[in-house]
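Form 7-S
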Amino acid sequence: MYKIIYRSLSENGISCMASSASFKQCKIRKEVVFSPYESTRFIGHKTTGENHHSKIYALRKTWFSKYMDYIRDLQKRLEKSFPKTMHVYRVFSIGTKDFYNDLKQYFAVKKKKSIVGIDKLSTQELQLLYQMPKDIMKLTPFLLTAALPFANYVVFPIGYYFPRIFLTSQYWDLQQRLDFALIDHKNRLKHNKPLLRCVQASLSKIEDQCLKNKWNEVIATLGGGRHPAPEEIVDCKELFQGPPYSLKALGRRHVELLAIHKMAKWLPYKRQRLLERGLLIKRMDNAIEMGGGVNKIPTDTLRWALFFRGLNAVNMSTEDMRQWLNKWLTVSSKVEKQNISLLLHCPILLAYNHETNWTLLYY
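Output:
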């Protein structure tokens, strides 16, 4: 037997001498020859462990799938048994999720504003900066009250039945958003006629006869049921740098301008707030121009822009909305900070006699 082993080792180039060095060499060669068996045992152990983990993963996946199926079935049963309750649940769950996403975007925009400046923001980002602080102030008391023990049983039904008062647009459906926008816009339109009368009453205070004649034609056009051309309005912009139509020269009754832009008339710093609103509109107009013009604005953003500037955009085609906003931008492009009051009067000058506004107000 030993001779056979010796002969096979010799054929493989291994010679075992009686010396200790040769014995060590033979031992090393033996380890090399038989090491694959040890590797095979290790691989088999590793493969067994991987199979074990894969079985656990498959078990978890199956359990999670069955759990999700159970949740879906439970939701369907609850919708059949308690349809009204489940509808309220969806309204608040989806609305809270949308509000949270808008809140994250709001803080991201504020961070971007601190880095690049407010003049580099897009139209949608400026819209978010304008709207979210109002939504936070309106919704925070409601959510804090709902967090009290057992208060949600009372607060949620109240919010559901009075969404315009207690909730924000994230919790409204499409029909509610349209209805509430029309209600707010109608309240703004009620102040159009008093403001136009204030503008007419200040006509006699204009000293420059040439400007007075031009402005008289603008007012006569409005009184005749039409709107002046944007170029005619721009020709009279000097009237808004000083008396009688600059922000500093506005009379007490002329603060109807605040209500037209959906601002409280009883709060202090009226002229400062009007200046900030005018600069915001100007930045939005600049953002539209830098973004490629009105043709690049999504339809929802375009409709919101018209409501924000004093025009009822319901039942208007996209092309009509773009044409009207282009007229606004023609005037806005010539407005600067010193005559920002002209931009604040544009809801009267460009939208007072518009058919959609009159239909909403009188029909």
